[in-house]
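Bit of a strange request maybe. I'm writing a small parser for structure token strings and I need a real example to test against, not something I typed by hand. Could someone generate the tokens for this chain?
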Amino acid sequence: MICDHDELAQAVMFFGENGFIAKEMLYTEFEALLDGYVLSHDWQNRQARAVFVEIDARYRIKTAIFFRIDFNAKGEVDASWNVPLRQLTDNALRGPDLGAGPIRLVCASQCPIKYFQAALWDPTLTAAANQLNALKKAATRNRLGIQFRDDPDLDSAAGAGVPANAEQLHRQLSDEIRSEYAKELRNQMALMLKDQRLRNSTLARESEDSIATLKRAHSEQVEEYRAIIEEKNRALSEEQARNLELKDTIDGQAKKIEGLREYFEHKLEKVEGEGTSLVNTLRENHQAEIDAKISAATRELSDLLRMREVELVNRVEEESLLRDEIARLRTQNQLLVSHGGDDILGHMVGAGISFVSYQPGAGHITIPVADITRYMENASAYAAEQCGVSEERYLAWLEHYQAPVCSAIDENGSMCGDNIPRIANPADFHCGDQDRCTAHKDINGNQTLKYAGS
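Reply from user aminoacidic:
Good idea to test on real output. This should exercise your parser:
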């Protein structure tokens, strides 16, 4: 590639997972990749971190735009990718000095157009792996074979004569050097401050992402523990109800046996004077009848238990069959929707139309074509996924967000209704805590729980 001395060569460099440059290409090659004439097998089904750079005639970087780009299974660029590199270049902000003065820099923490911030990324600026320095070295190595034509003005200036007065020339050069040194010192200080602010913003963004990840993990763990506690409480309640039912059955059988014992004892008392043999016979008959009654009661309870077990097994099998049928119908529905509407949606996306929906808590969501079916099937579940919470938790938060009052129910069946602070983020909301006033929070009620066996 040959450029004029006053032109800027354009290239795209890809960083691998190890943080180093994995591939370099001229911008014309990148445009062929965007148009689908060339495939990238190295990035199939992956998201790549790339940098658009502009290089001057002295192989110094003048512009750097850090963007993300997705590839499909064939190695083609994803059709939804639409980062305007030239528009971002025209609106780029000042960055650190890479040898030719402050570069024009666009990254996630320094994005002039906030709409495209999610499609950008921040470079690593640590001493061990400074990606800006890696770009500078790659431009100097010039593996892409970029060449620039010579500047004719430099050749004419080389043949010009020097002033005859050496003292005047020395004074002039001294003043220019002193002025240039002061200017360079001020620029260096400004660039150091700019570089430090960029490092601080990058570290702050990484810290926010780490905090958000930890908060999301904590919320998921809290919800998991809450679900376990609810399951244990439900199982305990069912076991207690089952125990009460068995106790009532046993008490009824015991009363019947006691009645029979009293009847035969009274009968024994009446015939006691008829002889020892008759008494023994009656006692044996009495014991045999008692044993028969006990055996019958035991068989009845065993049969009842087996019937319950058979019903439970049949119910589990029916639920499994219903789940399979629902999954099959859902797959058929998705196939019908995909074959019937994807062509129209694809033409709409190709025409520059984006699908944006506003959901409380998630804000304005740009919906990819592949997710439109899921969104239409269950918009609240899709919004909950974007917020990083479950659908049940998102619906509970939405009810609280629309009416921020205490939802606790007192002994008379009335709702408390006291005003409470509104939680704006679904990830910070927990049922039984943020939707209760101070007097009805779960943490106060849980102090009265007791173990059932104590």
